[in-house]
C-alpha cells in the first residue's frame, strides 16, 4: 500500500453521520456540557478559523494587489499642524486608521491629549521627491481642511524619482514655449507619446544591438585568451580576430550616430509644472513614463489606465530599484527555471519510481528506501540550497570551469550561482514529489491489466511501455505539476544558488548560444522578498509586492488545482477497473 | 517471466486448417530482439533508479564530508634540519621570525644584527645592523602586538630601540623578489626609558599609530615613557613628544612586563607567580593577582592576538589564559579564564597565531603543543626537538621555524579549523571583553583581531522558540479541525473544505513571510490588546453561540443539518474578530494608557515589531495544513466498527470520540505533530522575513530570534568557501537535515504501525 490512503478514503462512501442524542428536548446547562456538544462546536471552530485564515489572506493579497493599479484621485487640501503655518498638500490617499491620541502624542506630534479618544491618521502619497524627504507622509485627518479634487491636477509617473503631482503650466521645446494654458495638456499628451516611442527605440538600440556587439567583443576576448592558453595564437588567428573586432567596431560606429541623434531628440521637450504649494519645476519629458489627470478621468478611462498598468506590470522591466514598473524578467526567470527543472526532474523521478515499484525486490530494503524518499520531501528546502551551493556550484561548477573555460579564469563561468544550478537544486528538491506521485499511480494500476498483458506474451518491458506507463501517465503529470508548484514557490534555496535582485539580461536572448545556463536570473518569490525587505523605499514598494504575491499565488493555486483535478479524474477512471 | 529467447513456441491453429509456424527465422530474430530489449530495460531502469536514489542520499554524505574537517585536529610535518655555516658565528638568537610567504626568515643575534635567510635552505640573505649606541649591549627584547612585526630592544644603558621589519615584494624581470627592510616608526635614535641609565632587564612596547608606550624594568624598578607623535599638517613634519609615566616600585623581582595594545593596562609579572596590573591612563595600581597555585612558577608570558588575553605558562606545564573582566560595577579585574596543559615541565615559549586566537607552546624538553583559546582545544602535542628550542610562527600559522643547537628546522602545520569544539559550539564560552561566559553567535566583524563567536546554542534556541510558538497556535487548531473534519463534518462540506486546506498547504512560504513581515507585524503592534482579546474571546464566543443555538426553537436548529456547525461559526468568528480589533483602541486607552507598546516596555518587557508572536502566527499558518492532513487521515481511518460499537452501547458522539476514536488515532495524531514540528524547525523564509534575525536567547514572545535555517540563508552567500564559518553553516544544515529526517522517519514508522493495527481490526 502507498502512504496516501487518505485520498483513497475520500472515495469510500461515508457512513451516515452518528446521530446526536437528545437533540429533541432542551438540555439543562449542565447536561448540555455533559453531552459534549459544546466541544463539538469548539472543534468546528478550528475548521472555521483555518478556512477564514486562508480565505482572508488570499482576499487581502488580492484586494491590495489589484487596487494598486487603479488611478486613485488626488486630493488637495489645506493642512494645518497646530502651531505652524497652514500649507497646501496634494496626494493620493493610501490608508486611513484610528489611533489613540496618546500614541500620536508619544510620536512627538502636537496633539491635545484631552480632545477625545482617537484621531484619524491618513497616509498620503505625496510624491514630488524634489521637495519632500519621502514619497509618503502620515497626516492627521482632523488637521486637514476641506478636500477638493481639482480636475486639472496632473500626475506624472517618472522613470526616476517617483511621481510628480502638480498643475501643468506650459510645454516647451528647449527654452521655447510651445503651448500654454488650455492648449498645454493635449500638447503634452502628444509629446509624451512621441518621447515614449523614441525612448523605446533608444533602449532597444542600447540593449539589443549594442548589447550584441559587447557580447561579441567579450567572446572574441575569451577566444583570444583561449588560443593563447593553447599556444595556438599565431598570426593567422590573430588577424582573423582583429578582422572580426574591426567589424564589430565598424558596426558600433554606425549605431553610435543613430544613438546620438536619438538622444538629442529624446531630450528635446520639457514641461513646467507648478505644485500645489507653489513651487515651479521644469521636467524633461524623456523622464516621464506617462502623465494623466486622475480627477478628470471617467470610469472607462480609468479602467483603460488600469489594464494598461497591469499590462506594464506583467510585461515590462522594473524601474527604480524594482519598486516601480513591471516584473517581466522575474516571471521569465521563474518560468525558465521551472521548465529546465521539469525537464530534468521528470525522467529521473519516473525512472526511480518504476525501479522501486516494478523492478526492485519488494522487501525491507525497498520499504526503507520508500520511507527515506518520502521523508526527503519534508527536509527543509534551505538544506538543498546549501547542498546546491557546495556541490553543484563549487564542486561541479568549479570543475567545469577548470576543464572547459580556462580562458575566462579567474572570472567564474559555471563556478558561480546561476540558472543551471538553480534548476538542478530545485530538481533534487522536487524529485521525491515526482517519485511518490508516480509510484502511487503505478500502484493503482490493477494487477489484472499487467497480468493480462503478460499472459498475451508481452515481455515485461513491453507491458511497462505499452500498458503500465500510459495508464500511469496522469499520475506522473500530477507529480510533475506538484513538483513545479513546489519549485515555483520555493525561495530559500534559490537565494544561495543563482537568483539575484536584478539580472541585466534575460537567460534566453538573441546572442549565440541563445540559452545562457550560466546566467543569474530573477525570480518571483525572491522578488517579493527583496522588494519587500531589502528595498530602500518599502512604502512605495508595498503595493507592488502585493501584486507580485498575487501573481505567484494565482500561478501556484492554478497548478495545484489542476493537479487535484487530474488526480480525481484519474481515480474515477480506475475505480471501474478495480473490481 | 517470459523468457522468449530460449523458448521455441509451438502453437496449433484453433480452427484453421493451416499450421502456423512460429519458429521462422524472422520471428525467432524478432523474439531475440524483444528479449534483448527486455533485459536492457531491466538494466537501464535498475541502474538509473538506483543512481537517482543514490544521488538523493548524496546530500547527506556531502554535507557530512564538508563538516568533517572541522572536528579533525592539527597535524605537523617536520622538515629536515639545516645547519647553515653563518649560524655558528652568530651567537645566541634573541628573536626569530618568518614572513608572510614563508620564504624569508629573520634572526636577531645578541649584537643587534638582523640576519635574513632563506627559510628552506638556510642560505644567508642580507644583514642589517640595528642602531645600537657605542658601548651598549642588548639587555632584553620585547615584541609588539602579534602580527605587527614590531619589536623593541632594551639596552644596557637604559635606552630602547623600537623597530619594524617590512618585506617589500617586487617583480624585477618577472621574478618575485622579497626584500627585507627595517624601519623605525618613532625615529632611529634610541629612546631613553630609564633616566638613570640602568640596564633594562625587561622591556615591553605598544606601538600605536600616534602613540608609543615603552616600559622597562631594572630589578624591582619600573620606568615607563609615552611618546606621542604629531604631524604638522602644513609642513608634514612630525614632532615627537615624550611623557614620563610614574610607576611605583614592585615588591618582588620582575619576570615579565606586557603593555596592552590600547596602552591602558600594564601587566607586571613578578615574584614566583603573581601579576601587578597598572592602569596607565590613570597611573595607578589596579590590583595584585596571584596567578598560580602551589609551588609552580611563571616561566613564560605572552599576549594573544589582539593583546587582550595574557597567556601564562608555568613550570609545571600549565598554560592559563587571563584577561581583564569588568564586574557589574565597572571595576576591571584580571581574571582566570581557562587553562591548558602541555607535558609536565616548564613552558619556555608561547607563540600566538597572528590571525586567530590560537597559540603554540614549547616546553623545555622540546615538546610542541598547538592550542586554541576560545574553543579550549588542544589540537596537537608532539615532540619536535630535544632540549631547549626557540620558535617563530609564520603569519599564516602554517609554518613553525625552530632553532636549537645551531640547527634550523621548519615544521609545516596543517591546522585549518581550530576554532571549533563541542564546548565552543554548544557550551557557554567566556569571550574576550565579556563579563561572563555566554552563548553568542557573531560570525564576522570588521576588525582583523576579532574573536569569532560560533555558538550554535542561540540559533538552536531561536529555532525551537519559533517552532514552539508556531506549534502552540497550530497544534490545537489543526487537531480540532482534523477531528471535526474527519468525524463530524458533513461530506458535502468536507469536499469543499479539503481543497481549501490543500491550497493553504501549497501557499509559498515567501508569501506568508512577506505577509507577516509587512502586514501582520505593524498591524499587531498597533492592535495588541485587540489580538489578545481575540485569543480570549473566540472560545468564549463560540461556546456562547453554541449555547444560544441549543436554546433556539427546533425549527431553526433543524434547518441546518448536522455537520455544518463550522459553516455557522464562520460569521460568528468574523464578528468576534471584527469586534475585538475594533475595540483594540478603546482597550488600549482604558487599560494601557493609550500605548500598549510603551506600557510593556515600562513593565520591563522588551518589544520588537517583528517578534515571536508574528512568527508564531505566520508559521502556524504554514504548519496547520501539514498537521491537519495527517491527523485527519488518522482519525478518518479509525475503523467504523469501533465507533458504531461504541454508539450502539449508548455512548454520545463526544464520548465515542474521546474514549474510542482519539485513543485509537492518537499515534497518528502524534506523528502529525512531529511532522508539523519538523516543518516548523526547517522553515526559512517566514522566519527570515518576520523576525529581526537577532541571535538572542530569550523566550519573550515580543522579541525576535534567529533560527538555524534563517542564519544559513543570511550568512551563506557571504561565507568564504572552505573557511570554518562555511563549514559551520554546513553543520547547521546537517543538523537541520538530521533533525527533520529523524522526526519524519519516526512519524512514518508510527503511522505504518498504526495502519497495520487498523488493518487487523
SSE blueprint:
The complex is a heterodimer of chains A (579) and B (761).
Chain A: H1 5-11, H2 29-34, H3 37-67, E1 74-79, E2 87-100, H4 101-106, E3 118-125, E4 136-140, E5 153-158, E6 164-173, E7 176-180, H5 184-229, H6 235-266, E8 269-274, E9 280-284, E10 288-292, H7 299-315, E11 318-319, E12 324-325, H8 328-359, H9 364-376, H10 381-404, H11 419-444, H12 447-455, H13 460-489, H14 494-497, H15 524-533, H16 538-578
Antiparallel strand pairs in A: 1-2, 2-3, 3-4, 5-6, 5-10, 6-7, 6-8, 8-9, 11-12
Helix pairs in contact in A: 3-16, 5-6, 8-11, 8-13, 9-11, 10-11, 11-13, 12-13, 13-16, 15-16
Chain B: H1 25-67, E1 75-78, E2 93-98, E3 104-109, E4 113-118, E5 124-129, E6 138-143, E7 150-155, E8 159-170, E9 177-183, E10 191-192, E11 202-207, E12 211-218, E13 221-231, E14 238-245, E15 254-259, E16 265-270, E17 274-279, E18 284-290, E19 298-303, E20 310-314, E21 318-326, E22 332-341, E23 347-352, E24 358-363, E25 367-372, E26 377-383, E27 390-393, E28 399-404, E29 407-414, H2 422-426, E30 441-442, E31 453-454, H3 457-488, H4 491-506, H5 509-526, H6 528-551, H7 554-559, H8 565-591, H9 596-602, H10 612-636, H11 640-648, H12 653-682, H13 685-690, H14 708-715, H15 724-760
Helix pairs in contact in B: 1-15, 3-10, 3-12, 4-10, 5-10, 6-8, 10-12, 11-12, 12-15, 14-15
Amino acid at each position: 500500500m502507498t502512504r496516501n490512503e487518505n485520498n483513497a478514503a475520500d472515495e469510500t462512501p461515508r457512513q451516515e453521520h452518528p446521530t446526536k442524542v437528545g437533540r429533541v428536548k432542551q438540555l439543562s446547562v449542565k447536561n448540555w456540557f455533559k453531552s459534549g456538544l459544546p466541544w463539538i462546536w469548539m472543534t468546528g471552530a478550528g475548521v472555521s478559523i483555518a478556512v477564514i485564515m486562508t480565505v482572508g489572506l488570499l482576499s487581502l493579497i488580492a484586494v491590495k494587489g489589484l487596487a494598486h493599479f487603479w488611478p486613485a484621485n488626488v486630493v488637495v487640501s489645506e493642512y494645518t499642524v497646530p502651531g505652524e503655518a497652514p500649507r497646501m498638500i496634494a496626494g493620493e490617499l493610501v490608508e486611513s486608521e484610528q489611533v489613540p491620541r496618546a500614541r500620536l502624542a508619544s510620536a512627538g506630534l502636537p496633539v491635545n491629549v484631552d480632545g477625545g479618544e482617537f484621531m484619524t491618521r491618513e497616509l498620503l502619497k505625496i510624491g514630488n521627491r524634489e521637495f519632500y524627504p519621502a514619497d509618503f507622509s502620515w497626516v492627521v485627518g482632523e488637521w486637514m481642511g476641506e478636500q477638493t479634487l481639482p480636475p486639472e491636477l496632473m500626475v506624472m509617473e517618472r522613470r526616476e524619482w517617483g511621481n510628480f503631482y502638480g498643475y501643468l503650466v506650459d510645454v516647451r521645446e528647449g527654452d521655447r514655449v510651445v503651448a500654454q494654458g488650455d492648449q498645454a495638456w493635449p500638447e503634452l499628451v502628444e509629446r509624451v507619446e512621441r518621447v515614449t516611442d523614441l525612448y523605446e527605440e533608444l533602449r532597444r538600440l542600447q540593449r539589443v544591438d549594442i548589447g550584441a556587439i559587447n557580447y561579441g567583443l567579450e567572446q572574441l576576448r575569451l577566444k583570444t585568451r583561449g588560443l593563447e592558453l593553447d599556444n595556438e595564437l599565431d598570426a593567422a588567428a590573430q588577424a582573423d580576430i582583429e578582422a572580426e573586432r574591426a567589424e564589430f567596431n565598424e558596426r558600433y560606429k554606425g549605431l553610435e550616430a543613430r544613438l546620438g541623434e536619438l538622444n538629442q531628440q529624446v531630450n528635446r521637450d520639457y514641461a513646467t509644472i507648478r505644485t500645489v504649494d507653489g513651487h515651479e519645476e521644469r521636467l524633461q519629458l524623456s523622464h516621464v513614463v506617462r502623465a494623466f489627470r486622475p480627477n478628470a478621468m471617467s470610469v472607462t478611462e480609468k479602467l483603460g489606465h488600469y489594464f494598461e498598468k497591469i499590462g506594464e506590470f506583467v510585461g515590462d522591466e522594473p524601474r527604480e530599484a524594482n519598486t516601480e514598473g513591471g516584473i517581466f524578467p522575474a516571471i521569465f526567470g521563474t518560468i525558465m527555471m521551472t521548465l529546465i527543472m521539469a525537464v530534468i526532474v521528470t525522467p529521473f523521478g519516473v525512472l526511480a519510481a518504476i525501479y522501486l515499484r516494478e523492478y526492485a525486490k519488494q522487501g525491507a530494503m525497498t520499504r526503507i528506501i520508500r520511507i527515506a524518499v518520502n521523508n526527503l520531501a519534508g527536509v527543509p528546502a534551505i538544506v538543498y540550497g546549501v547542498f546546491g551551493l557546495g556541490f553543484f556550484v563549487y564542486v561541479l561548477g568549479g570543475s567545469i570551469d577548470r576543464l572547459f573555460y580556462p580562458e575566462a579564469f579567474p572570472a567564474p563561468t559555471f563556478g558561480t550561482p546561476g540558472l543551471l544550478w538553480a534548476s538542478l537544486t530545485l530538481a533534487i528538491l522536487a524529485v521525491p514529489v515526482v517519485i511518490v506521485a508516480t509510484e502511487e499511480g503505478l500502484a493503482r494500476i490493477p494487477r489484472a491489466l499487467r497480468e493480462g498483458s503478460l499472459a498475451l506474451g508481452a515481455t515485461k518491458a513491453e507491458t511497462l511501455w505499452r500498458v503500465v506507463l500510459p495508464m500511469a501517465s496522469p499520475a506522473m503529470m500530477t507529480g510533475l505539476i506538484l513538483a513545479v508548484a513546489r519549485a515555483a514557490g520555493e525561495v530559500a534555496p534559490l537565494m544561495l544558488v543563482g537568483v539575484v535582485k536584478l539580472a541585466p539580461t534575460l537567460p534566453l536572448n538573441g546572442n549565440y548560444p541563445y540559452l545562457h545556463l550560466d546566467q543569474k536570473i530573477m525570480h518571483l518569490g525572491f522578488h517579493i522578498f527583496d522588494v519587500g525587505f531589502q528595498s530602500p523605499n518599502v512604502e512605495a514598494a508595498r503595493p507592488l509586492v502585493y501584486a507580485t504575491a498575487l501573481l505567484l499565488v494565482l500561478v501556484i493555486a492554478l497548478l495545484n488545482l489542476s493537479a487535484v483535478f487530474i488526480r480525481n479524474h484519474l481515480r474515477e477512471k480506475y475505480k471501474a477497473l478495480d473490481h | 517471466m517470459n523468457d522468449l529467447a530460449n523458448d521455441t513456441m509451438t502453437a496449433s491453429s484453433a480452427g484453421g486448417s493451416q499450421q502456423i509456424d512460429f519458429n521462422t527465422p524472422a520471428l525467432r530474430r524478432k523474439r531475440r530482439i524483444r528479449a534483448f530489449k527486455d533485459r536492457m530495460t531491466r538494466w537501464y531502469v535498475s541502474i538509473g533508479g538506483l543512481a537517482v536514489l543514490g544521488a538523493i542520499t548524496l546530500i547527506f554524505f556531502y554535507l557530512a564530508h564538508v563538516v568533517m574537517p572541522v572536528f579533525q585536529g592539527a597535524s605537523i610535518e617536520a622538515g629536515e634540519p639545516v645547519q647553515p655555516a653563518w649560524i655558528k658565528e652568530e651567537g645566541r638568537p634573541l628573536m626569530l621570525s618568518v614572513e608572510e610567504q614563508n620564504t624569508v626568515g629573520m634572526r636577531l643575534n645578541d649584537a643587534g644584527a638582523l640576519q635574513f635567510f632563506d627559510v628552506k635552505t638556510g642560505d644567508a640573505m642580507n644583514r642589517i645592523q640595528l642602531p645600537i649606541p657605542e658601548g651598549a649591549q642588548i639587555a632584553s627584547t620585547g615584541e609588539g602586538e602579534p602580527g605587527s612585526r614590531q619589536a623593541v630592544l632594551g639596552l644596557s644603558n637604559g635606552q630602547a630601540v623600537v623597530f619594524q621589519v617590512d618585506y617589500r615584494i617586487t617583480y624585477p624581470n618577472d621574478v618575485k623578489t622579497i626584500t627585507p627592510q627595517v624601519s623605525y616608526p618613532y625615529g632611529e635614535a634610541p629612546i631613553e626609558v630609564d633616566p638613570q641609565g640602568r640596564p633594562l632587564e625587561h622591556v615591553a612596547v605598544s606601538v600605536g599609530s600616534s602613540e608609543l608606550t615603552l616600559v622597562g624594568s631594572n630589578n624591582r624598578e619600573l620606568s615607563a615613557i609615552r611618546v606621542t607623535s604629531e604631524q604638522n599638517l602644513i609642513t608634514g613634519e612630525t614632532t615627537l613628544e615624550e611623557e614620563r609615566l610614574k610607576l611605583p616600585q614592585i615588591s618582588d623581582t620582575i619576570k615579565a612586563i606586557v603593555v596592552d595594545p590600547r596602552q591602558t593596562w600594564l601587566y607586571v609579572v613578578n615574584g614566583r607567580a603573581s601579576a601587578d596590573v597598572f592602569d596607565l591612563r590613570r597611573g595607578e595600581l589596579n590590583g595584585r593577582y596571584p596567578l598560580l597555585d602551589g609551588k609552580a612558577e611563571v616561566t613564560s608570558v605572552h599576549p594573544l592576538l589582539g593583546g587582550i588575553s595574557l597567556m601564562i605558562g608555568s613550570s609545571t606545564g600549565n598554560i592559563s589564559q587571563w584577561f581583564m573582566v569588568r564586574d557589574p560595577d565597572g571595576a576591571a579585574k584580571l581574571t582566570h579564564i581557562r587553562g591548558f596543559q602541555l607535558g609536565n615541565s616548564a613552558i619556555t615559549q608561547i607563540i600566538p597565531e597572528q590571525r586567530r586566537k590560537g597559540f603554540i607552546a614549547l616546553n623545555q624538553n622540546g615538546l610542541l603543543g598547538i592550542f586554541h583559546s576560545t574553543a579550549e582545544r588542544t589540537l596537537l602535542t608532539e615532540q619536535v626537538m630535544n632540549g631547549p628550542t626557540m620558535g617563530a610562527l609564520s603569519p599564516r600559522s602554517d609554518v613553525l621555524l625552530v632553532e636549537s643547537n645551531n640547527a634550523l628546522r621548519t615544521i609545516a602545520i596543517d591546522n585549518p579549523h581550530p576554532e571549533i569544539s563541542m564546548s565552543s559550539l554548544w557550551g557557554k564560552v567566556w569571550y574576550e571583553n565579556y563579563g561572563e561566559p555566554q552563548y553568542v553567535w557573531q560570525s564576522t566583524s570588521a576588525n582583523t583581531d576579532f574573536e569569532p563567536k560560533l555558538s550554535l546554542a542561540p540559533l538552536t534556541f531561536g529555532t525551537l522558540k519559533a517552532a514552539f510558538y508556531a506549534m502552540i497556535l497550530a497544534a490545537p487548531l489543526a487537531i480540532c479541525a482534523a477531528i471535526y473534519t474527519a468525524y463530524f463534518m458533513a461530506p458535502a462540506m468536507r469536499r469543499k473544505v479539503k481543497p481549501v486546506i490543500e491550497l493553504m498547504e501549497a501557499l509559498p512560504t515567501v508569501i506568508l513571510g512577506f505577509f507577516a513581515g509587512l502586514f501582520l507585524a505593524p498591524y499587531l503592534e498597533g492592535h495588541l490588546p485587540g489580538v489578545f482579546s481575540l485569543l480570549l474571546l473566540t472560545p468564549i464566543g463560540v461556546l456562547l453561540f453554541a449555547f444560544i443555538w441549543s436554546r433556539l426553537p427546533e425549527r431553526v436548529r433543524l434547518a441546518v443539518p448536522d455537520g455544518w456547525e463550522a459553516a455557522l461559526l464562520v460569521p460568528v468568528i468574523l464578528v468576534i474578530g471584527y469586534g475585538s480589533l475594533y475595540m483594540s483602541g478603546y482597550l488600549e486607552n482604558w487599560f494601557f494608557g493609550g500605548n500598549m507598546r510603551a506600557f510593556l516596555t515600562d513593565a520591563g518587557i522588551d518589544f520588537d515589531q517583528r517578534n515571536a508572536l508574528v512568527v508564531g502566527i505566520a508559521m502556524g499558518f504554514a504548519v496547520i495544513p501539514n498537521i491537519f492532513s495527517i491527523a485527519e487521515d488518522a482519525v478518518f481511518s479509525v475503523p467504523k466498527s469501533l465507533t458504531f460499537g461504541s454508539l450502539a452501547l449508548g455512548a454520545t458522539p463526544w464520548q465515542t470520540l474521546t474514549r474510542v476514536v482519539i485513543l485509537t488515532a492518537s499515534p497518528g495524531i502524534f506523528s502529525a505533530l512531529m511532522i508539523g514540528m519538523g516543518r516548523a524547525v526547517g522553515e526559512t523564509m517566514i522566519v527570515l522575513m518576520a523576525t529581526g534575525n537577532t541571535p538572542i536567547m530569550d523566550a519573550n514572545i515580543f522579541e525576535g530570534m534567529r533560527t538555524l535555517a534563517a542564519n544559513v540563508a543570511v550568512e551563506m552567500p557571504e561565507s568564504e568557501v572552505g573557511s570554518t564559518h562555511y563549514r559551520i553553516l554546513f553543520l547547521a544544515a546537517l543538523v537541520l537535515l538530521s533533525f527533520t529526517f529523524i522526526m519524519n522517519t519516526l512519524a512514518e514508522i508510527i503511522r505504518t504501525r498504526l495502519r497495520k493495527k487498523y488493518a487487523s481490526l
